[in-house]
Write a structure and sequence with these properties.
Length: 405
């Protein structure tokens, strides 16, 4: 049977449409929450981190960890696995992962003009018009970023992505459902041998992408009849070496007959590709008010394949912990505003899994005792030998990894 997919702006009356479609067709509904839960089950990654792939906001650590790309890979595999079932209605961000050559998927976009959406938000959530507009714009930004990441299109409602773009402020739910039913029974949407094969290719491509993600790589993947094409969209210093690395991973995936690589439109970007090394710390937050010291330390860690971000006061450090969840923190004690001991105390209360290394030039033995009692992983004095600091970071990272096993 055909599949229905619905991508909708917020406050575009999708709920009554979906409910009526389900009643009329008897289809089974899968939402982003369902697909993210399955992706989390398959990967061992938390559901919230999986769903962060849908957010326009990208972690400052992502260029080191590829977390967003890895989440998308697992989401793609979870979505691909659905095509072994019949009578599906899939709605949400994940529908954009479904390849266009799966022609038995009827792609619906529901959207309304901004005035209508703001009115709905005001009525449903008791917001002011200004608050409603801000909420809608934030969620539209997430959708726009998601579609741009996948298709390099800035408009998430671009008609080229859908079989039907339906204005819900001008078309009632019953009429919309009638249009969907009419098109669902069209010969164009019926499953064919070609579209069924495309669904199998989708599964193979998703498995290859996950295999690459497990090895710390990120690349575009397409499959056809067992032939896999890997697209590199970053500037690479040693392209041929990376190509061989990617091929060596992909060719081991069951069902892959051949692998070729090519460079994509993003190949000449300024940023340099870095494979994510799971055994090296790549989410290190540096907290110190000495800017030149922090910048130099960040560069020296990067040379040792460790990814870091920097803030220069305690309040910013706590904000970063809430927003980006670093895994290891290198923390100075003497800073303006909130001092390092207070930052350590609050971090260990709210995120005890974060390992904190104290690195200070002004501490005392009493400070060291307090920090270790509060849960610091280590207490080092400036100027710390970079090799000693690197080894301490690796040990902290290993402790984190062992907790996850």
């Amino acid at each position: 049977m055909s599949v229905i997919t619905i991508f909708s702006g917020v406050f575009c009356e999708k709920e009554p449409v979906i409910q009526k479609v389900l009643e009329k067709t008897g289809y089974k509904l899968f939402t982003d929450n369902d697909i993210a839960a399955e992706a989390g089950r398959l990967s061992g990654i938390s559901e919230n981190k999986i769903k962060s792939a849908f957010s326009a906001k990208t972690s400052v650590f992502n260029k080191f960890t590829h977390e967003k790309e890895r989440a998308a890979a697992w989401l793609r595999l979870a979505a691909a696995s659905l095509f072994s079932q019949d009578n599906l209605l899939i709605e949400g961000f994940a529908v954009q992962l479904i390849p266009s050559d799966i022609s038995h998927a009827l792609r619906i976009c529901l959207i309304a003009d901004m005035k209508s959406r703001i009115s709905s938000a005001v009525r449903e959530l008791k917001l002011s018009e200004k608050e409603a507009a801000a909420l809608i714009h934030r969620q539209d930004e997430d959708m726009a970023m998601w579609v741009n990441t996948l298709y390099r299109l800035r408009d998430p409602w671009d008609a080229s992505l859908y079989d039907m773009v339906i204005p819900t402020d001008k078309t009632g739910p019953d009429k919309i459902v009638g249009l969907i039913e009419e098109n669902l029974h069209s010969e164009v949407i019926r499953p064919t041998d070609a579209s069924k094969k495309a669904a199998l290719d989708f599964v193979l491509a998703a498995n290859v992408e996950v295999a690459l993600a497990k090895e710390g790589h990120s690349a575009g993947v397409a499959a056809r009849d067992g032939s896999v094409t890997l697209t590199i969209n970053k500037h690479i210093l040693m392209l041929s070496r990376l190509e061989e690395d990617l091929k060596s991973v992909a060719v081991k995936v069951p069902g892959v007959g051949s692998v070729e690589t090519r460079v994509g439109k993003g190949y000449h970007q300024a940023d340099i590709y870095r494979k994510y090394d799971f055994e090296m710390p790549s989410k290190v937050l540096l907290v110190d008010d000495e800017r030149e010291f922090v910048q130099t330390l960040s560069e020296r860690l990067y040379m040792r394949e460790m990814g870091s971000a920097a803030v220069y006061d305690g309040e910013s450090a706590l904000d970063m912990v809430r927003e980006d969840e670093p895994e290891v923190m290198i923390l100075d004690l003497k800073m303006p505003g909130i001092d390092g001991i207070e930052v350590l105390r609050k971090v260990k209360q709210s995120h005890p899994e974060i390992e904190v290394i104290i690195l200070t030039g002004h501490g005392s033995e009493a400070d060291r005792e307090v920090c270790m009692k509060l849960g610091a992983f280590a207490y080092l004095q400036k100027p710390a030998d970079i090799n000693l600091l690197s080894e301490t970071l690796k040990k902290a990272n290993e402790k984190i990894r062992q907790k996850r096993l």
